[in-house]
Amino acid sequence: MNFKAMLLGGVFASLIVSPVLADGHKEISAEKIKEVTSKIDTSAIIANDKADKNWPTHGLNYGETRYSTLNKITHENVSKLGLSWSTSLESRRGVEATPIVVDGVMFVSSSWSIVHAIDAVSGKELWRYDPEVPKNYAHKGCCDVVNRGVAVYKGLVFVGAFDGNLHAIDAATGKRVWKTDTIIDRTRNYTITGAPRVYNGKVLIGNGGAEYGVRGYITAYDYKTGKQSWRWFSVPGAPNKPYENASMKTAAKTWDNSAEFWKAGGGGTIWDSMAFDPELNLVYVGVGNGSPWSQKIRSPKGGDNLYLSSVVALNADTGAYHCHYQTTPGDTWDFTATQQIILDDIELNGKKRKVFMQAPKNGFFFVVDRTNCKFISAKPFVKVTWATGHDKDGKAIVAKGARYENGSTYEAIPSAYGGHNWHSMSYNPQTGLVYIPAQGIPLTYTDDPNWKLNTHVAGQAMSGMGWNLGVVFNKVPPKEKPFGQLLAWDPVTQKPAWKVQYASPWNGGTLTTAGNLVFQGTADGRFVAYDAKSGKTLWQTPVGTGVVAAPITFEHKGKQYVSIGWGGVYGQLQRATERTGPGRIYTFAVGDTAPMPALVKRDPANLVSGVAFKQDDFGPGAGLYVANCLFCHGVPGVNNGGNIPNLGYSSKSTIENLHDIVLTDALQEGGMPSFKGKLTKDQTKQIAAFIQGVADSLKPKPKK
Ligand code: CA
Asked: Which pLDDT score, from 0 to 100, does residue 353 have?
């Protein structure tokens, strides 16, 4: 089948499992959508906090707690949860979005930034809006053509499209109202994958692109017109130009100009996390990694390189810098601080404190005073080797060897994948616990002696090709094993309360509710409800393939629902020939009984066998596989299905002759780039050794 045709999705009919609606549910009209969405503004979003009937903004509330006070679904009746409906998003790529729900209408984005309005009671699609991202834009993004959600405000729906355009859509009709270009330099590889946030008539959106060499910033636009209200850059620009504001002057002192860092942009993209405190009138934004990754190349004499890897508080009206806390000084590992920022008031030493909490990639859980960004506490929530702790001002003490000094190799724990990534966490004030999709995917870092700045040649989506890193991965194979877990973390004692171990890293975001529940989708294709206090599994259902998106809950006509979409980087692996269910939203309620869509499973007995390989090739092959193959093809035999083949199920001759595909343009039409000049034939043998080795380990052992 033609790969492009597949991506366009035109060949896939919409699959809707018809719901049984005993209450004679009527389809919602455009007038009604207009009426209910027009009421959504800053005060409505704040007021929703008391009842949580709707899910009106990305993190449920402006503090982004993802804690719902709805308690009709409880730890006692959750076992009776059944499917209300499931709706296909006709997406063959990752679905990472958190849906927005307003009075029974759901707005959710899927891959290629396509927005769907869905009747949240019946699952019927009401309209679909395609921002028409050019398909050749895919190679400008690091991690698939994903979108993490939309925003709704006064009758409009906002989506940041993958090509960097911000669109405002009429919530009632799905027609475009305005569109604005957020990109400052179209010769660079800027993208948008994050969800906009809207408050006080301003739509806030940042960009991605730090892997390719860009300068990060965040922009606020007028919700009615799309006109720019303010913009804040996260790193300094070229020194021959004036500073945009005082915070840039401060930041410039923490960079070394000798390597002309501004030519690679410096990085610091604000690609995901934001939170808003209406009382303090501050927005909090999470800043990403440096461009290039290696600080030795970017800023050879070191320095903190502000405001990389920081949470920054900005005046909500003007975008003026208020304060910051830097989670990783002088980042050299891709330790972004773009992970979720939760605002809440918690009791510490008998005193209520206004804090923000973050579990960024670097593996420390941070509690910081959000009025002034002063450090309160930090403890590792997973194993951490890059820093030994924090000084009294809260500055990380970097461990010897962690900067892979003098040509040495450092095994990063956590690595660039993060001890926690963008998958949302949630904070339940009843249990006092934060529920973190924690993980570890080890990588070793060594200097790349061949690195040359190249910001204008596009890479290949998710392959690592064309990235400006200055780092070679897994030249020495990592010793640690990957893991994934649901971690319940006490932010007061900075200790774990309980953990659930998973088969794989890269699990979905979490939701917690007043029903003493935590919901999470897993990489191994389940949707699970846990007791929030104990971590006991109370209910689960298979959803066919790995989940990375976060669940939501809402109430309509007195009934509480829970919804989740699946997909993500691993979600790209959904395979047309294997499964009937492309990217999909599932909605559940107590006592509902709609049938789950049929799904076909891979049989591990059919994994590739018989490819002869040298055991010594397995380790280097693992490193090469992670750096070159993993993002598209997944872990052999683990991330099954998908429109891109899982190589664990290749034929013996394909794996034996991998160089015939990898080092030629044989499959270019299907989207597979040639690695000629990047990999050698011997290295393809090492990759083959890794694939066969993993397949051997996953095959069921013959019964004796
Ligand atoms: Ca990054």
From this structure: 98
